[in-house]
Amino acid sequence: MPRITPRRQSERRDRILDAAERCFARSGFQGATMAQICADAGVSAGGAYLYFRSKEELVVGIAERDRERIAQDFAHLDEAPDFLGALESLAHQYCFNEEPHRRALMLEIAAEACRNPVVHEEWRRVDRLVHGAFAKALSARIADGRLRPRHEPDTLATLMMIIGDGMFQRTALDREFDQQRVMPAMIALMRRLIGDPDGDPDADAAPAGQERLAAADASAAGPKPQPASLEKA
pLDDT tens across 164-221, in order? Predict the structure, then answer.
């Protein structure tokens, strides 16, 4: 019997993982069965079990594949000439250009991570990878004076991930969400958060704006009452 080449093994493994992604997104981690995944992948149960013996091992395989992809995409973030431009590109790639089943899959894995220690550990590994890439890129720009934030890089990286998680979840759940309208505001918020000198173009105009608001408030309140001594005079 001819042996399967490493290339064919890799292709078959990816086909099983692709099927698992679709089944988990469609039926949930608990609802999907190995039989459904095998049928979707077009492989026998015996063939699938040569690569993955359980649904947990499939999640580990999906996470490992995602880590390789993320590591490649984030590898040179700290060297990007336009840091915010690179972030915007990543946001489009991971939030807006992902296939719908991939968005549903990530939410499903996050939910399962709350219950399953094995899945949680895989989620944490991906989370630490992204956090580390952000913190490294921020540290380099703070060190050479290109950024002047009010918070340390680790805190900034966490805040950036919170914003990104919210954007991803909104994109996955809200079919009417207008990403193109929100993206410029999100990038502007990021610029202010990380202390980008170009992140607050209205800073010089703020005092004048505050003066106008104060004048408007005073006008709406009407004339100030005069002290009793002045009224008698």
Answer: 899 889 988 898 988 888 888 988 898 899 998 765 544 433 333 334 334 444 555 5
CA distance 84 to 186: 11
Q: Name the token pair of 84.
A: 């915010």
Q: How wide is the angle at C-alpha 229 spanned by C-alphas 225 and 230, nearest 5°? A: 60
Domains and CATH numbers, the chain: 1-53 (1.10.10.60), 55-199 (1.10.357.10)
Low-confidence ranges of the chain (pLDDT < 70): 1-3, 198-233
For helices 179-194 and 83-91, angle between their N-to-C axes, nearest 10 degrees: 140
Contact 27, 104 (CB under 8 A): no
Give the long-range contacts of residues 136-145, CB within 8 A, separation 24 or more.
Answer: 136/77, 136/78, 137/77, 137/78, 137/80, 137/83, 138/194, 139/78, 140/78, 141/83, 141/194, 142/195
